[in-house]
Design a protein that fits this description.
204 residues; six-stranded parallel β-sheet; alpha/beta; UbiX-like
Length: 204
């Protein structure tokens, strides 16, 4: 059964994680709402060569082209559009993933400060007790980062840092990305075969 997920993209390095997750969720037949902070738009341009400048319709078209999908399966709302459906608990999605998640975004979510639609949607997930997964991408971590992560974890947020594993013997950058994306899919309860599990057979 198709579900509705929100994917939040922030200004931390690692935009490829968010877009690879979008690809897999769309391939599985789910519906997405993509939200991006202004710093995320700059990082996406630098790391992926994709421009997400313009009004909502223009950006939605660019995303659909990049992800090879249609408007029926993907929605996009600007960071300042607090009238978007996902800003309300009455239209809360099944789950939200912020990937990658910057320390600034994580801190504002932990403090209940909603300066953008992305942060408001995360706040909605918390108040509605819906699954919220954050994929922090920062190193090294200071005490503030760790305290904010602990605070959110105690609220029920799943903290899934962008840490690669090597037991599946990755051969390419794509293998490392798929490991992380596979772990996110596991947390969402979505069947995936993106990496060989510990003690499992090689993927065909």
């Amino acid at each position: 059964m198709a579900k509705h997920f929100v994917i939040g993209l922030t200004g931390a390095s690692g935009a490829i994680y968010g877009f690879r997750l979008c690809e897999e969720l769309l391939r599985a037949g789910h519906r997405l709402t993509v939200l991006a902070s202004q710093p995320a738009i700059e990082v996406i341009r630098e790391e992926l060569g994709l421009s997400l400048r313009g009004d909502e319709a223009t950006v939605r078209t660019a995303l659909c082209r990049y992800l090879q999908t249609t408007d029926d399966t993907l929605a996009y709302y600007a960071a300042d559009n607090l009238l978007a459906p996902v800003a309300s608990g009455s239209a809360a999605p099944e789950a939200m993933v912020v990937v990658p998640c910057s320390m600034g975004t994580l801190a504002r979510i932990a403090s209940g400060v909603s300066t953008s639609l992305l942060e408001r949607c995360a706040d909605v997930m918390l108040k509605e007790r819906r699954p919220l997964i954050l994929v922090p991408r920062e190193t090294p971590l200071n005490e503030i980062h760790l305290e904010n992560m602990l605070k959110l974890t105690r609220m029920g947020v799943r903290m899934l840092p962008a840490m690669p594993a090597f037991y599946h013997q990755p051969q390419t950058l794509a293998d490392l990305v798929d490991f992380l994306v596979g772990k996110v899919l596991d947390s969402l309860g979505i069947e995936q075969t993106l990496f060989r599990r510990w003690g499992g057979k090689e993927q065909s």
